[in-house]
Amino acid sequence: MQMDLTLYKTLLEVAKWQNFTKASEKLGYAQSSVTSQIQKLEIEYGVEIFERIDKKMRPTPAGDILLRYAAKILKLYEESKINVAGQTTGSFMIGTHETTLFSYMLPPFLGAFKKCFPNITITIHELLENDTSRALKAGECDLGFIVDKELSDPDLIFKTIQEEEFVIVAAPDHPLAAKSAIVPEDLNGAEILMSISGGRCRKLFETMLRKHNVQYTLTYEINNYETIKKCAMHGLGLCLLPRTTVSTETQNGQLAILPLNYPNFRLNVQLCYHAKRQLSVPMKNFIGLMCETTPHERLSLEQSNTIQPL
């Protein structure tokens, strides 16, 4: 059995690097050993697994199928170790497109989880926009976080953690910051900062601007909330960001929230996983911690942990 698992691990490593030499370096094996292991799999399954194309080792159609099974086999093996060993060690992966937002939200929960499961490793994997559902269905991650309207998918389970409000912020001396209230049309002629990724935050903003025929100047497109905030602080434009990510700056006077009451600037933060996923005890506890914590308990967690971006 251990021999078979080793072969599958080698298979996945070769597929990852598309190169026998690189795979052997990462695995700590001689290249001849890697070649021999792939040959054993080819003999076992009676198919050619890789073919050389443009100096790279690419999986054949049969190889693609075997790779998917190999990933599942190794994941099941890791799950079995956790279950049999009392589930005190192991790991699981969280996938999300909104890594910046969750770098603010997650630390208090990760700290609380670590106290109960100190030997469980959590990996946070950044995904492309709209790729979280696909990654969960493909078994590429165990849990996912999505910021969107309420979603429904027969293959996935969605649990709403909280509602996230998005706010328009600018430097405190911005002319609109002095107003007691503004409407979307007040943004005409404004200089605006936006995320380059085309994520939900940008779509929310663009939808409002388009709906109200607002003419504006796009000063910078930046794929990072932190950099967008810094630019806004230096008077380079106003921007729409999750309230969670600007709470510190608005409290200490580095940024001002423009008084625009727009009902559509709200989305649900949702934790999701495959409906047929066998959840380990640590994963169940993590889901419970994220989804069942009351607002008061969440505040206590935040106050007992130093919240900084991951």
From TrEMBL:
Alphabetized UniProt keyword annotations: DNA-binding, Transcription, Transcription regulation
Protein family per UniProt: Belongs to the LysR transcriptional regulatory family.
GO molecular function: DNA-binding transcription factor activity; transcription cis-regulatory region binding
Pfam families attached to this UniProt entry: HTH_1 (PF00126), LysR_substrate (PF03466)
Protein name (record): Uncharacterized protein
LysR substrate-binding domain residues: 86-290
Domain HTH lysR-type positions: 7-63
Domain of life where this protein originates: Bacteria
Organism expressing this protein natively: Paenibacillus oryzisoli
